[in-house]
Specification:
Shape: globular
Protein name: DUF523 domain-containing protein
Organism: Romboutsia sedimentorum
Oligomer: single chain
Helix content: 25-40%
Strand content: 15-25%
Number of domains: 1
Number of strands: 6
Order of helices and strands: EHHEHHHEEHEHEH
Structural class: alpha/beta
Bound molecules: iron/sulfur cluster
Largest sheet: 4 strands, parallel
Number of helices: 8
Radius of gyration: 17 Å
InterPro entries: TudS-rel
Length: 184
Amino acid sequence: MKRDKNIVVVCHCILNCNSKVEGLSEYRGALDFTKKLIDNGIGIVQLPCPEMMIYGIKRWGHTKEQFDNPFYKTQCKNMLEPYIMQFDNYIKNGYNIKGLISIEGSPSCGYKKTCSSSLWSGELSNCTNLDEKLSDVKCIDEMGVFMKQLVSMLESNNLNIPILCLDESTLQESINDILNNLNI
Ligand code: SF4
């Protein structure tokens, strides 16, 4: 059997930037570094994009506080359950899930950084404090809502998968760190 049994799990938009909020993506389709994974015999599992599935492609950019509600969290849990079962089955059968790559700054998929504002909500057409709302949106050192659910499910299933952070604000540096961590 020729397979290497090595797997990397990626947040959806690493392989398909079309799922991102329009205007955010600075790459055309998939991030190039994934070719290195393929060239090194690593299989890639792509997680679902929760924001695309729930809000669609015409959504505005959101903050963590908007997604931190029971419906969104339950939907994330439901989306992730089949993946947790796959990870468990792979690991118990000798496969190596070498890492899971986050998207830093995302209100859903950030691991160390997420987008936050307590003011970012409400009707915009007659909003009298739009500047205040806009300037309140910031990056904070917390997990996004989808990632928090994922980490909690990994822990409760005793699945030890390193989380590797992809930060598009320092893209090449974070890709280098990820490839170093994966020993490729
Ligand atoms: S960061 Fe997560 S929620 Fe945002 S586009 Fe990528 S996969 Fe979707």
